[in-house]
């Protein structure tokens, strides 16, 4: 547009200049012919036949030069004015265009803020409010249950002062179980001692240790695989969840144009476009690939100083959760072998700025996992989808050997219903329990490491960090880890899987 405008004004200048020169030349020619022209004296003298010297020639020449100079000066002034006019108009036009573009950019930015950022922020705020309400309710339940437990204890002491009871009455035991099931993900009774102490005359110093001792009494130390129990549970999982064919999104189970419903929220389904379908694997990675031994790593602080690295690496297939460190000295306790690792989008958000800036640091962090599957919950929540796709594209662009795949929300819904039928009541399963469930379908033998949701060690009661690599605590009670652990302990005692606690002995398998 700018070039067209300049060409038009250049043409106008050329036409104006031609017209001006024509007019001046015409005026100058007429002035020579007419009686009033600067040469009329010369013509008159020549016409008279007088051969006398031309006394007025010098004066006439001066007049001609002066007239011509004046005309040229006027032309220069006109051209200068025209140049200024053109320059002003061009600058004004450019400024108007830039202003219009700025307005469009501002409008676009405001639209993005209104349509994307604000709803996303509001959604997060609602979720945070809901979690806070659940947390407050849980605290009230714990406090109420703790008060009831204290009353029961006082009653038992007063009624049996002369006969020390060897075990608590049955209804007192039920009270303990109720408190245990209502405490957050850091382990049953982690906060209970504080609650009980606040309502009692004497602090309850040994509550957590007593709970852990109770668990360890029920823990089968001489574990033995029970083949029939394994077959029954695998059959139940296969019929209910079909993890072999449904756990991961593939081109076979999710065709182009299909509508994927998010499992974590009620939103408009995601319609699979061709470019996203093209990145799905053609077949399920576990289909027709039976696995013998599998290890699922839970990242709990109980893994520290466990010397379990060698046993973990001896498994045929190793599941890891949420990009845990497997180098820098952790190899002795947790091993380094990885065949599948999950990625929580919150890690991408807080550690790698949602991959909105540089991608290389994230891709380089995956090098320690070799050619493992990188499992992403792309369709659990709507805001997970673009983040997961950016992870996939970054891995492909930098030619990382890792293989990004997406969790199937249909599988997660089925899995949640299955564990509800087993008595586990929670809004969302932890990633660890999801991986244990998948391993129980695809592996003949499953060993668990780092699954211990309590703040004290099972042997010795020494304090533990939340993870083997840091002590970052869960901010909200999204998962009921103690309730999940009770399910795993039940399967351990039934010989379906083995939960490793404490140090690992030398591998004799």
UniProtKB/TrEMBL annotation:
Keywords: Coiled coil, Disulfide bond, Glycoprotein, Glycosyltransferase, Golgi apparatus, Membrane, Signal-anchor, Transferase, Transmembrane, Transmembrane helix
Major site of localization recorded for this protein: Golgi
Membrane-spanning residues: none
Pfam families recorded: Glyco_transf_29
GO cellular component: Golgi membrane
Annotated spans, Disordered: 124-203
Biological process annotations from GO: N-glycan processing; olfactory nerve formation; olfactory placode morphogenesis; oligosaccharide metabolic process
InterPro entries on file: Glyco_trans_29, Glycosyltr_29_Sialyltrsf, GT29-like_sf
Record membrane topology: Single-pass type II membrane protein
Composition bias type Basic and acidic residues, residue spans: 140-156, 163-179
Coiled coil: 65-92
Single GO MF descriptor: alpha-N-acetylneuraminate alpha-2,8-sialyltransferase activity
Locations listed in the record: Golgi apparatus membrane
Tagged with keyword Glycoprotein: yes
Family to which this protein belongs: Belongs to the glycosyltransferase 29 family.
Protein name as annotated: ST8 alpha-N-acetyl-neuraminide alpha-2,8-sialyltransferase 6
């Amino acid at each position: 547009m700018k070039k067209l405008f300049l060409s038009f004004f250049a043409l106008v200048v050329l036409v104006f200049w031609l017209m001006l020169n024509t007019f001046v030349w015409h005026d100058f020619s007429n002035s020579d012919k007419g009686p009033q022209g600067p040469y009329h004296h010369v013509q008159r003298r020549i016409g008279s036949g007088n051969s006398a010297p031309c006394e007025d020639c010098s004066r006439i020449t001066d007049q001609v030069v002066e007239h011509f100079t004046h005309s040229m000066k006027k032309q220069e002034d006109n051209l200068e004015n025209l140049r200024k006019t053109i320059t002003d108009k061009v600058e004004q036009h450019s400024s108007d265009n830039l202003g219009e573009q700025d307005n469009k950019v501002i409008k676009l930015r405001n639209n993005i803020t209104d349509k994307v950022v604000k709803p996303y922020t509001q959604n997060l705020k609602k979720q945070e409010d809901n979690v806070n309400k659940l947390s407050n309710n849980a605290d009230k339940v714990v406090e109420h249950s703790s008060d009831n437990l204290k009353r029961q204890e006082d009653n038992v002491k007063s009624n049996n002062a002369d006969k020390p009871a060897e075990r608590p009455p049955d209804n007192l035991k039920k009270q303990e179980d109720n408190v245990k099931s209502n405490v957050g993900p850091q382990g049953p009774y982690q906060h209970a001692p504080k609650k009980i102490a606040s309502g009692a005359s004497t602090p309850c110093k040994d509550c957590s240790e007593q709970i852990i001792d109770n668990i360890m009494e029920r823990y089968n130390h001489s574990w033995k695989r029970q083949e029939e129990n394994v077959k029954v549970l695998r059959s139940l999982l296969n019929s209910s969840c079909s993890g072999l064919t449904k756990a991961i999104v593939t081109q076979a189970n999710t065709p182009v144009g299909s509508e994927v419903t998010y499992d974590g929220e009620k939103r408009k389904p995601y319609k699979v476009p061709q470019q996203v379908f093209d990145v799905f694997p053609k077949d399920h990675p576990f289909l027709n690939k039976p696995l013998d031994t599998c290890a699922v790593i839970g990242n709990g602080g109980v893994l520290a100083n466990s010397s379990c690295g060698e046993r973990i690496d001896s498994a045929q297939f190793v599941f890891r959760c949420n990009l845990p460190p497997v180098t820098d000295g952790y190899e002795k306790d947790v091993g380094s072998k990885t065949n599948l690792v999950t990625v929580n989008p919150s890690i991408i958000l807080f550690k790698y700025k949602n991959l909105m800036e540089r991608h290389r640091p994230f891709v380089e962090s995956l090098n320690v996992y070799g050619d493992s599957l990188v499992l992403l919950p792309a369709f659990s929540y709507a805001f997970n989808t673009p983040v997961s796709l950016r992870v996939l594209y970054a891995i492909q662009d930098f030619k990382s050997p890792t293989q990004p795949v997406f969790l199937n929300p249909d599988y997660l819904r089925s899995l949640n219903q299955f564990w509800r039928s087993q008595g586990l009541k929670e809004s969302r399963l932890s990633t660890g329990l999801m991986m244990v469930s998948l391993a129980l379908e695809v592996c003949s033998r499953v060993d668990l490491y780092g699954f211990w949701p309590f703040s004290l060690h099972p042997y010795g009661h020494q304090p533990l960090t939340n993870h083997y690599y840091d002590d970052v605590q869960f901010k909200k009670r999204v998962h009921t880890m103690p309730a999940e652990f009770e399910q795993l302990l039940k399967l351990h005692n039934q010989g379906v899987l083995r939960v490793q606690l404490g140090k690992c002995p030398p591998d004799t398998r």
